[in-house]
Amino acid sequence: MNADKLTTKSRDALVSAQQIAAEHTRQEITGLHLLAALLGQDDGLVRPILERAGVPLDALLGDLERELQGRPRVEGGEPYMGRELSQALRLAEKDSAARGDAYVSTEHLLLGLVAAGRSFGGGNLLRTSRRRDWAPGRRGGSGARHPAGHQP
After folding, report:
1. Which of 6-15, 95-104, 127-136 has the lowest mean pLDDT?
2. Distance (Å, rounded) from C-alpha 90 to C-alpha 61?
3. How many whole angstroms separate alpha carbon 149 and alpha carbon 7?
4. From the CB of residue 5, how many other CB atoms can be counted at a distance below 10 Å?
5. Helix-strand-coil percent breakdown of the chain, rounded to 5?
6. What is the mean predicted confidence (pLDDT) over 24-39?
7. Cβ contacts of 94 within 8 Å, gap of 6 or more
8. Can you tell me the distance from the alpha carbon of 136 to that of 121, in angstroms, rounded to the nearest whole number?
9. Cβ atoms within 10 Å, residue 48
10. What is the 3-state secondary structure (H, E, C) of 60-78?
11. Were 21 and a residue from 3, 29, 87, 135 both cysteine, which residue would form a disulfide, CB within 3.0 to 4.6 Å?
12. Are 86 and 33 in contact (CB under 8 A)?
């Protein structure tokens, strides 16, 4: 993935995902870490999108935290991006290009996570995501045509 094509919010989410992995004593940065980062953005768009889709955020957050806590801990070593997260990022970039968007936004990251087929948070996100009509910009792009520093 070309980092120059990420919006500021998307870059922030990836940095936060790495920090979340480190806080949970993990070397591998996974889609779960990215999802937690996206949900943790105070002024981000992912929470409102999922709320509008009817995703029970409290349940999702609880399931997500249990999943993160339940994974094996690894002391030391360098952090690395897991295969699942790499796939989600490729899918997000592909979705962005297909919509004609110049940048990969947090909405594209969310769609990439969903498209990667992983059952996040006990399956709540995946079940909701099968109705792709909630997807941001479904009828003509997410609007990620702005410079990276100007994402809402």
Report:
1. 127-136
2. 25
3. 7
4. 18
5. 60, 5, 35
6. 91
7. none
8. 21
9. 10
10. HHHHHHHHHHHCCCCCCCC
11. 29
12. no
